[in-house]
Amino acid sequence: MLRARLLVAAVGIPLGIVVVVLGGPVYAGVVAVLTILGLHEFYTLTRPYRPNLLAGYLAALAGLAGAYFGGLGGLLGGITTLLAFLFFWGLGGRLGDHLVGRMAVTAFGVVWLVLGFGHLVLLRNLDNGLALTIFAIGCTWVNDTFAYFTGRLLGRHRMAPRISPNKTIEGAVGGVVGSVLFALVVKMYSPSWFSLSDAAILGLAVGIVGQWGDLFESTVKRDLRVKDSGRLFPGHGGLLDRFDSALFAGIATYWGAVLLLKEGAPWPF
User: Fold this and answer.
1) HSE-up of 52 (CA within 13 Å, CB side)?
2) Strands 158-160 and 164-168: what pairing?
3) What domain range is 170 assigned to?
4) pTM value?
5) Is residue 22 included in any domain, yes or no?
6) Residue 115: is its pLDDT beyond 90?
7) Where are the extended beta strands (E) located within the chain?
8) Is residue 242 a part of any domain in this protein?
9) Are 238 and 228 in contact (CB under 8 A)?
10) Is 267 within a domain?
């Protein structure tokens, strides 16, 4: 298991850095592919609820395209199109066909994944988007790594036994410490616009919020009675298992950059 995790990391991290550095359509395209794959995993897990796949996939592409070309307003507009589509689809559906459940599951997947991945697109498009995106993804990866090894070495007290029995308070603390340390390393290479206190605050926020994202996905899996969201990454599970923290970390980093570092515009309109 550990060997597989390290192998996936050894291949995935350099590829991810290359994609982030390239930015532009390449980065947006890769994020779009990841979003569709993540939605596919979620809709596969919730197949008994019969989500509207076409509506979900089209809303995902609309939201990501809106984020790339129109910023936050475009992202929200793309997601809103899903709600409008589901409304009119529901009006024409057959009563008693579990329309409410189908619409809820479809919208849940889009809001969760498109908001998360969409904010990674928004983040990359900021003035200092390259450094901030590496910051968000790096903090998330270091957070997961420190939490994993700290938990294995020192973990004694379970953090959320009903949701994720293997997670410990000691591991969570180790993950947050790792996230802050990585943030301070990024600060060393971004001296002109990133203060020491800003780095520490954002690192702390990403460390905490990223672990919320992990627990959120664990809650979804626990409710659906599955161990992994898929088998895309050996040793890691599915795409949602690998990117659950990054979805929340991207949102935290983007709004931290907007409100704390004054990057970009704070509101969509």
Assistant:
1) 27
2) antiparallel
3) 2-259
4) 0.90
5) yes
6) yes
7) 158-160, 164-168
8) yes
9) yes
10) no
